[in-house]
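Hi, here's the filled form for the chain we discussed.

Project: internal
Contact: R.S.
Residues: 458
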Amino acid sequence: MAAMAVSSSSSSAILSSFSSDLKVQSLGVFQPSDRVNHLNLSTRRVSKVKALRATESRVVPLAALSTLIAPNTEEVIIEEEQLDYEKLAKELENASPLEIMDKALAKFGNEIAIAFSGAEDVALIEYAKLTGRPFRVFSLDTGRLNPETYRFFDEVEKTYGIHIEYMFPDSVEVQGLVRNKGLFSFYEDGHQECCRVRKVRPLRRALKGLRAWITGQRKDQSPGTRSDVPIVQVDPVFEGLDGGAGSLVKWNPVANVDGKDIWNFLRAMNVPVNSLHAQGYVSIGCEPCTRAVLPGQHEREGRWWWEDAKAKECGLHKGNLKNEGDTQVNGNAQANGEVADIFESENLVNLSRSGIENLLRLENRRDPWIVVLYAPWCQFCQGMEASYLELADKFAESGVKVGKFRADGDEKAFAKNELQLGSFPTILFFPKHSSQPIKYPSEKRDVDSLSAFINALR
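And the returned structure, exactly as it came back:
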């Protein structure tokens, strides 16, 4: 419950102070509240956004202020209503991104900002402009972004007449990381440590000056980690201006929008976009950890491609991460809570641990084999399911066996040590007269590319 303290003074002075308070700070300038209290008003604000519930200020008409001021009153408490963000998210489930953006900006004013990554989330800035309300934009400059992204930032600032509020990593922390582990340690031991220094901690500092933030998360971006992103939520990870759990609200206006519809909107509104998109980049992050994707690949395959699919979050949206057993595949899970299997076909052999070990031991096989090492929760495995099933049908009577081996869980260590598993999916070809399997080197997983690989080695 929030409280506002008002010292005894003249009504005209109070009205003057309220008029001053209503002035909006410069558009796009990231700075803490610096309103001057000309009348030495004794104010006290103790409201916090609590888990799934938060406070919504009740507007007090200026004409009614005189009734709040008593001659010998030291403090007046103004009650605030409770807002249930879980209920609000359901109410906004079918709302347009423009309506959601307008509601977010109207509620939080200068205490909310758009998080801009330099990719297609520029749509958020366009939506904010269309509301006609003042808005703020911040971005994380990790020091490792593509040159194209820096040029895009400049273009966005000029197009919208704003100043993006850049947040930078701590130079001492970056220096320690690089001196101890080198510039590219994330290729060896994962991206989390580097992201924590260059992204997560700067974001935490930025959010401590806000009561809400706006992100470009979409459910279709990463089925493994973002499939349940709500329109609005109490942030489960970060703290806001008031501090403590539940002190920050997170808005996701395009959560229910498909990627293709975002792009249709950008084209229709003639919005400037990062030139990397024209080079095949879809999801854009730091230069060493981002690459273009091939036709048919999921957009997140261009990020941290050397790691498992379920690890493809940098920590900014850590609250999205689920336990492996909780992950749904293609939106479905079995009634007992286990993940439903994929690559089901009568022309495809499901290999057990002993079956794959036998394949490894044989030096002279009756038939060559192609085998996918997979995890059913992996969205990249899901993405190639249709083409791999078509491949199995194509080679059904050709003398080439098509198989699958589930290599997650207890089998993962074995698959890494014996089967060259790097990330899911990994595809192996077992030649007829060699015990050593050959790893498919390409990211192209369409039927024609896989068939060419098989025919070149069979």
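Let me know if anything looks off before we file it.
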